[in-house]
Design brief:
Strand order of the largest sheet: 3-4-5-6
Number of domains: 1
Number of helices: 6
Strand content: 15-25%
Helix content: 25-40%
Distance between the termini: 63 Å
Number of strands: 8
């Protein structure tokens, strides 16, 4: 039996490699395929979402925080500039999109839980309304965490002071302890986003 010559083996290898590469390539479809909604990344189906370039739509990207399995999750929103504390809270109050809800995100913050919000000297001031007091203690912690993470995500803001109906109030930290003072992300580290 005669052995094949080296050029024949090399030619066979080249042919097999070309066939293998062609089989792994991008299919040549004549039409577009619809991707199931659940497979689309967060924000791409949002009516407020778009390009990351704020000049494309006259909007700026900002992060708001929702909850999933007891932890905060960041979600991108496109807001009209300049992004204000009120526009952030309004976007947060609207809650997660249908896509985000389908992915398990929720908001503990009732849409009418914040009466007023402002920022001064690096501190966001949030006046809570009566619907906030009707939340369970665990939902109060999640809602406060949502507000703290959303507001302190803005440049120059590191603390949040809460009042209730314009009166000083104690708020729970993530560990359940109450504080009458200002809070930061450190106070909600136990429910901070993963990663």
């Amino acid at each position: 039996m005669r052995r094949p010559r080296l050029p024949s083996l090399l030619a066979a290898f080249v042919v097999l490699a070309a066939v293998g590469a062609a089989a792994c390539g991008v299919p040549n479809d004549e039409s577009a395929n619809k991707l199931p909604t659940k497979d689309v990344p967060f924000g791409l189906l949002d009516q407020e979402a778009g390009s990351n370039n704020p000049n494309d739509s006259g909007q700026e990207e900002a992060l708001v925080y929702f909850a999933k399995n007891g932890r905060l999750v960041a979600s991108s929103r496109r807001l009209k500039p300049p992004v204000s504390a009120r526009s952030l809270v309004n976007s947060l109050s609207r809650g997660p999109t249908q896509v985000e809800i389908a992915a398990g995100l929720r908001s503990a913050l009732p849409d009418d839980a914040v009466r007023r919000v402002s920022i001064s000297s690096g501190t966001a001031r949030v006046d809570l309304a009566r619907p906030f007091t009707e939340l369970s203690s665990s939902d109060q912690i999640i809602a406060l965490g949502q507000l703290v993470y959303t507001l302190t995500g803005q440049p120059g803001v590191g603390l949040v002071r809460f009042t209730l109906l314009d009166q000083p109030t104690e708020v729970p930290r993530a560990d359940g302890s109450l504080t009458p003072g200002r809070v930061s992300r450190d106070d909600y580290a136990a429910i901070a986003p993963d990663g």
